[in-house]
Design goal:
Elements: E1 3-9, E2 12-18, H1 24-31, E3 50-53, E4 56-59, E5 72-74, H2 87-95, H3 104-117, H4 123-129, H5 141-152
Parallel strand pairs: 1-5
Antiparallel strand pairs: 1-2, 3-4, 3-5
Bound molecules: FE2/S2 (inorganic) cluster (2 copies).
One FE2/S2 (inorganic) cluster binds near residues 100, 135, 136, 137 and 138.
Length: about 160
């Protein structure tokens, strides 16, 4: 049976009517209209649907929306501030860390979690932590360069 739940997304509270088996990805895209989070494999294998839940990465295609109640959800739409790209987004643009862009929201959300938790990020650590985010276009080199460039200026990342 469907029920109304409250989800806190990017600082705003949304009331949504959901079925018990609806995933967070379905609710974000199909009910709330936040299309930045991408549906790739829908199986928990590609990372395209990555969001942050209480600051940690979560694959929204395999998480029930109901399990996100009472938690802080952050999507790619919540990264920019007052019309300005977040430094990670700006670095992806500057370093050419995207081509078709389909993997990019998930990459950026994972990068944010990694940068927030790793004080001394190395390329090796980054590659391990981002191994679950797949990209079919870039060959990863420029993605790594983009994230490392933000890490080098970590005092500026919010
Ligand atoms: S769409 Fe969720 S991991 Fe691929
Ligand atoms: S930029 Fe196309 S899949 Fe990564």
């Amino acid at each position: 049976m469907k029920s109304v739940i409250e989800l806190k997304i990017n600082g705003d509270t949304h009331e949504v009517l959901v079925a018990p088996n609806e995933t967070l990805l379905e609710v974000l895209r199909d009910r709330i209209g936040l299309m930045g989070t991408k549906r790739g494999c829908d199986l928990g294998s590609c990372g395209a649907c990555t969001v942050l839940i209480n600051g940690e990465t979560a694959l929204s295609c395999i998480m029930l929306a109901m399990d996100a109640v009472g938690k802080e959800i952050q999507t790619i739409e919540g990264m920019e501030e007052a019309g300005h790209l977040h430094p990670i987004q700006a670095a992806f643009v500057e370093k050419g860390g995207l081509q078709c862009g389909f993997c990019t929201p998930g990459m950026i959300m994972t990068a944010k979690a990694v940068l927030d938790e790793e004080e001394h990020l190395t390329e090796d650590i980054l590659k391990k932590k981002m191994a679950g985010n797949l990209c079919r276009c870039t060959g990863y080199k420029k993605i790594v360069e983009a994230v490392m460039s933000v890490s080098d200026k970590s005092g500026e990342v919010s």
